[in-house]
Task: inverse folding
């Protein structure tokens, strides 16, 4: 049986070369909701593009992610910081992350929550976030929005998406869309990462990459029967309010009543 990776070594290396840290605009947006008195959590924290910046600001932040390869990169960044940060960094899914505390502020940036597909999985993840959040705490989720998903081309052939280089190493990312579920707005894709050293092919990794695209105002139904309330919907990281603009992402600011 062919082995597929989930954010494996080449994928983690690729994104660490391409985006070692969050850009300033995104980072300042998420930092603006934090203060030094808070317990903060970043689920799906990956290589620590945001988490490390929070630690550098002296904030108390924990994180978890399913990819041990990504977390290894995150841990290596934390170890290089002047202060020996005391935080939870766990290889885990939502269900198995069981800290002995609750959080004032939880955030999932960069559309990562859209990687959770299937109504039951989405509802379960939201319920877990609700349980991890303190009373009057805040949750920020950045969701990908459906813009002509049905126009994407289904293919059996990979095409090059982009590549990154570091010294004599190049990693090429290839992509193909294998299926589209128009009813639930899910795109099923395969990614392939090819490693080259001095221009010579070395090896590759493949991974399934499935994304849920939300219709505007669709996410609200997932918060029904919870204690979570939408405070704001932002169209961008400048905190412009979302009012039916044609955009690729909506950032939900949610509080727990």
Result:
């Amino acid at each position: 049986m062919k082995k597929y990776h989930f954010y494996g070594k080449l994928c983690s290396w690729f994104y660490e070369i391409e985006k070692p840290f969050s850009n300033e605009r995104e980072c300042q947006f998420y930092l603006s909701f934090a203060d030094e008195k808070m317990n903060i959590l970043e689920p799906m924290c990956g290589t620590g593009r945001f988490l490390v910046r929070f630690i550098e600001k002296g904030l108390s932040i924990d994180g978890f992610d399913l990819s041990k390869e990504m977390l290894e990169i995150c841990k290596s960044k934390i170890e290089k910081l002047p202060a020996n940060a005391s935080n939870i960094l766990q290889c885990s899914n939502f269900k198995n992350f069981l800290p002995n505390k609750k959080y004032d502020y939880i955030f999932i940036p960069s559309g990562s929550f859209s990687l959770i597909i299937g109504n039951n999985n989405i509802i379960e993840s939201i319920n877990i976030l609700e349980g991890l959040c303190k009373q009057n705490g805040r949750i920020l989720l950045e969701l990908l929005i459906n813009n002509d998903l049905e126009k994407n081309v289904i293919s059996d052939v990979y095409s090059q998406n982009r590549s990154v280089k570091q010294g004599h190493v190049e990693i090429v990312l290839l992509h193909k869309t294998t299926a589209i579920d128009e009813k639930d707005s899910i795109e099923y894709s395969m990614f392939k990462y090819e490693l080259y050293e001095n221009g010579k092919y070395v090896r590759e990794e493949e991974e399934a990459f499935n994304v849920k695209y939300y219709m505007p105002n669709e996410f609200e139904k997932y918060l029904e029967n919870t204690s979570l309330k939408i405070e704001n919907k932002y169209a961008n990281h400048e905190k412009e309010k979302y009012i039916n603009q044609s955009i690729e992402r909506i950032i939900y600011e949610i509080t727990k009543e």
Notes: The CA atoms of residues 4 and 207 lie 5 Å apart. The chain has a mean pLDDT of 93. The domain at 9-144+215-256 is CATH 3.40.50.150 (Rossmann fold).
